[in-house]
Amino acid sequence: xxxxxxxxxxxxxxxxxxxxxxxxxxxxxxxxxxxxxxxxxxxxxxxxxxxxxxxxxxxxxxxxxxxxxxxxxxxxxxxxxxxxxxxxxxxxxxxxxxxxxxxxxxxxxxxxxxxxxxxxxxxxxxxxxxxxxxxxxxxxxxxxxxxxxxxxxxxxxxxxxxxxxxxxxxxxxxxxxxxxxxxxxxxxxxxxxxxxxxxxxxxxxxxxxxxxxxxxxxxxxxxxxxxxxxxxxxxxxxxxxxxxxxxxxxxxxxxxxxxxxxxxxxxxxxxxxxxxxxxxxxxxxxxxxxxxxxxxxxxxxxxxxxxxxxxxxxxxxxxxxxxxxxxxxxxxxxxxxxxxxxxxxxxxxxxxxxxxxxxxxxxxxxxxxxxxxxxxxxxxxxxxxxxxxxxxxxxxxxxxxxxxxxxxxxxxxxxxxxxxxxxxxxx
Length: 427
Description:
three-stranded antiparallel beta sheet, single chain, alpha+beta, 11 strands, disordered N terminus, globular, 2 domains, four-stranded mixed beta sheet, Four Helix Bundle (Hemerythrin (Met), subunit A), paralog of FGE (formylglycine-generating enzyme), 11% strand
């Protein structure tokens, strides 16, 4: 019998394999929880070429495990069914032909119920593979889990775009009432010199291939703003004629402003009484001046920085500065908060670095020195997009918990703004 003074027994720490399985299960379950508030009709709609239907995200993430793990490594599983291979492939040219992205919303069959059955089928197969054939497949399972987490963020951004295009402007959820308090803008100074950036191969955590290898970069002395730019600061930019002043804009940016009629961020609207509102996953709300601005493109962020007498940070500056802050002080909202919207993060020092809004940098999306893509079709995951795109850092309020890290490199073309992108100034 255990004496009263003996320590209580504790469960043994989970093994690496058990953590891998637990994380995979949680990722699969989170996708379903995010889709649960949506009707079959909601999951079918595709209002824009860039916004995929929810049911496609659910199917595609299952297709990934079906194609790269089950069909290759589970005895007796068989090949991926032809219609699924065609409909649910995204851009993996090495795997085969694909249905065009812009037409995903017209595919009413297979139905949402069929997609749910497909997910269940893949999950059963994966449970068997994880139980009996995991050895040697850990990295691929981890990649598939993180791939699913990426699509959870995309699912939320896409349903926001789809609901915003609906004249009724329905709400995805009831957001808890939380006001922001960003505090006044301040600067933190950093000495220049040779610094190490990028993911190190010996680090004991997942990273996508484009995050490495770790390498040296020479930086000059620089300052970084302690928080992201707020909606209130963006309103001042608007009211000072920021969208009407060509000298602030890169040529392609000014051309886009003229062609698209931009006068404020995506989802913003000036009401008849003069109020500025924006569409959120909780419906249309008044713009909170203290919240970080989001849904601005690279060219808008660059124009704002020029108007503010500053610039966008290089991604190496951002990463080096962020590495000086303890992980528990990064301070941005992610999916687990339930808010699905960025909040201000008051306090001294750098804050809001992880979560909140993806932050544009002044760095083009190119390979780190020494980068080599993985062999085979999975090598198409990041390398093939290293052209005419710009790097964002930090994650956003739609990013799954635990999916962010300081070396994470997101990337988008310069004039896209449907993603949850904001900015932090440098000088």
